[in-house]
Design a protein that fits this description.
Strand content: 35-45%
Number of strands: 11
Shape: elongated
Oligomer: single chain
Helix content: under 10%
Radius of gyration: 27 Å
């Protein structure tokens, strides 16, 4: 197995879960996802049937109800990490909040994979990242843009005017002597 393939749990709109392996990006082709299951077979899944894909630490196969262990679905307070704080409403009516990147990878995910990559509210849980297809979202709200505190960058020395050169000029007329 390639190191580029990560553990995932695919939750379908029927609430069925499928464990397997997927790469982090570029896995949607012709509106299907080719999931490599635990027995080594490739299972094609229609993107319209997928609710979300959770990249997980462990499969938790004994837990049939919530193997991705995605218990906290909203942030308790304003997130501290940089990103777009988003609230998604699924076709089933449930909510999910997450942080999307501010950089160009947000547009890449929307264009190439037809969905959003989010960081979940509780990164210490089993779910590390969530992919949500565009077809499973009915409403998308931007709650906040979270950036790091701005720091003043020092100006280059050549652009700062030197006041010391003019310090001793024009104080005493040139042809006079002090007392």
């Amino acid at each position: 197995m390639s190191s580029a393939h990560k553990k995932v749990i695919v939750r379908r709109l029927t609430n069925e879960t499928l464990p397997g392996y997927l790469p982090l990006a570029g896995f949607v082709r012709n509106h299907t996802v080719d999931l490599l299951d635990l027995s080594g077979r490739v299972i094609p899944l229609a993107l319209n049937d997928i609710k979300h894909i959770c990249y997980v630490r462990d499969f938790n196969l004994n837990d049939t109800a919530n193997p991705e262990r995605l218990t906290r679905r909203t942030f308790l307070a304003k997130p501290r990490t940089e990103g777009l704080w988003l609230r998604l409403t699924f076709r089933s009516g449930d909510l999910l909040e997450g942080l999307a990147p501010i950089d160009i990878s947000l547009a890449d995910d929307l264009i190439h994979d037809a969905g959003l990559q989010l960081t979940p509210p509780d990164v210490r849980s089993n779910t590390q990242r969530i992919f949500v297809p565009r077809t499973s979202i009915t409403e998308l709200q931007l709650l906040a843009v979270i950036t790091s505190p701005s720091r003043r960058k020092p100006l280059p020395a050549s652009s700062v005017p030197s006041l010391q050169e003019d310090l001793f000029t024009n104080l005493i007329p040139p042809n006079t002597r002090p007392n």
